[in-house]
Automatic annotation (TrEMBL):
Occurrences of domain ATP-grasp (ranges): 120-318
Keyword Phosphoprotein: no
Name of this chain's protein: Acetyl-CoA carboxylase biotin carboxylase subunit
Organism annotation: Micromonospora taraxaci
Keywords noted in UniProt: ATP-binding, Biotin, Ligase, Nucleotide-binding
SMART domains attached to this UniProt entry: Biotin_carb_C
One Pfam family from the record: CPSase_L_D2
Keyword Phosphoprotein applies: no
GO molecular function: ATP binding; ligase activity; metal ion binding
Domain Biotin carboxylation positions: 1-445
Length: 445
């Protein structure tokens, strides 16, 4: 097993990784910006290194500073968490070239799945269903118009190098396409350094369902069930649950088999997620993208399968067998995660500030993975995620009732927060029925 681990991230995910590392007797090393010096993850690490100012380009995305911290502390491995450098193939290569262990998939897999068009083509070749769309980037607006006419409106205009719900637009006709194409291309060039654009069929009423995969040290790829991620604002998730209330045993079998094929197509190792769009009416599903990292919503899978995914990541990176029997996976129970963000609960605009009161709920089936505590300052420099409220139980109905109590008992005073939204959602009949789709938030507003 790895003996010392540098966590190249911040907030709740850094704290989460540090917790598992320390339980396993691994020396946990944090890196932090000036703005984060007082956050819990810094205090809880065995060692902490300041790597730069608040601007993430000069700290959490500063590869030289992170590698220097690893060298200075004698770190044996680097865990990137999610976001920042977690899907940066060049960073992964540099880490390994420097003799360190990269806790994640290899750089070739990250590269293969990082380009949405290349990923679609790879998945289609592997027999994974993909939505109708372009097999090459739309080189210019005329090419996009031609492709959209062949695919049929409405279409999704996507940044080929994008991810995390960013760099996407919907066009219902040619006039809208002409506007969205330029918007997405310019955004993609600015955010990802690559203006390549993908055109694919847009499904107005779909569910967003993903499968957790784990590439084992012995070369096998296993699927650890599915997660429902259809409660979204601006294509970014707010709630995830496992198992999905829309997935039957027969559909689950097909979904998981396709996800394993996806992983095998790129010789995947470590944790990853195969994201799909599901048409609940027909039972058809289509590959959306693969996230080559640990997901924000991994705790719901941990509960249903009774494992610690960070521990499994560390075991794979160390060349060790998993803690579970891959041939006898037995999911049980239900779990829902709500992302508590520092944002307006109506329009979801960020609302940073000083946390004057922070009281976490407790009780049976309640887990809180938080990045902050009372007295901390939520700044504008980073993602608005404050904490993840994970509720578990034997059945979905039990979880829904526990969730209502937990949301009511979670107190955050200072920055704006979206707890009122979750209180509203948990009383929403569409959500409670389980028969919801990606449009549920817009219908609530």
């Amino acid at each position: 097993m790895i003996e010392s681990l540098l966590v190249a991230n911040r907030g709740e995910i850094a704290r989460r990784i540090i917790r598992t590392a320390k339980r396993l007797g691994i020396r946990a090393i944090a890196v932090h910006s000036e703005a984060d010096a007082d956050l819990p993850f810094v205090a809880e690490a065995d060692e902490a290194v300041l790597i730069g100012p608040a601007n993430p380009a000069l700290s959490y995305r500063n590869t030289e500073a992170i590698l220097a911290a690893a060298k200075a502390t004698g770190a044996q491995a680097i865990h990137p968490g999610y976001g920042f450098l977690s899907e940066n193939a060049e960073f992964a290569r540099t880490v390994e070239a420097g003799g360190l262990i990269w806790v994640g998939p290899d750089a070739d897999a990250i590269t293969a799945m990082g380009d949405k068009i290349n990923a679609r083509n790879l998945m289609a070749a592997a027999g994974v269903p993909v939505a109708p769309g372009t097999t090459d980037p739309a080189a210019d607006l005329d090419a996009a118009v031609t492709a959209a006419a062949e695919i049929g409106y409405p279409v999704m205009v996507k940044a080929a190098a994008g991810g995390g719900g960013m760099g996407m637009g919907v066009a219902v006709d040619e006039a809208a396409l002409r506007t969205e194409y330029d918007k997405v291309r310019v955004f993609a060039e600015r955010m990802f350094g690559d203006g390549s654009v993908l055109i694919e069929r847009y499904f107005p009423r779909v569910r967003h369902v993903e499968v957790q995969i784990l590439g084992l040290a012995d070369g096998r790829v296993v699927a650890l069930g599915e997660r429902e991620c259809s409660v979204q604002r601006r294509n970014q998730k707010l709630v995830e649950e496992s198992p999905s209330p829309a997935v039957s045993p027969e559909l689950r079998s097909r979904l998981l088999a396709a996800a394993v094929r996806a992983g095998e197509a790129v010789s995947y190792r470590n944790a990853g997620t195969v994201e799909c769009l599901l048409d609940p009416a027909s039972g058809e599903f289509f590959f959306l993208e693969m996230n080559t990292r640990l997901q924000v919503e991994h705790p719901v899978t941990e509960y249903v399968y009774g494992i610690d995914l960070v521990e499994e990541q560390l075991r794979v990176a160390s060349g060790l067998a998993p803690t579970f029997d891959p041939d006898a996976l037995t999911p049980a129970g239900h779990a829902i995660e709500m992302r508590i963000n520092a944002e307006d609960p109506k329009r979801f605009f960020p609302g940073p500030g000083v946390i004057r009161t922070w009281v976490e709920p407790a009780g049976d089936g309640v887990r809180v993975d938080s990045g902050y505590t009372e007295g901390n300052t939520v700044t504008q420099f980073y993602d608005s995620l404050l904490a993840k409220l994970i509720i578990t139980g034997a059945t979905r109905d039990e979880v829904l009732e526990r969730a209502k109590e937990a949301v009511a008992g979670f107190q955050v005073v200072g920055p704006k927060n979206n707890l009122p939204f979750f209180a509203e959602l948990l009383d929403n009949e569409e959500f409670r029925s389980g028969a919801y789709d990606t449009g549920i938030v817009s219908r609530m507003r």
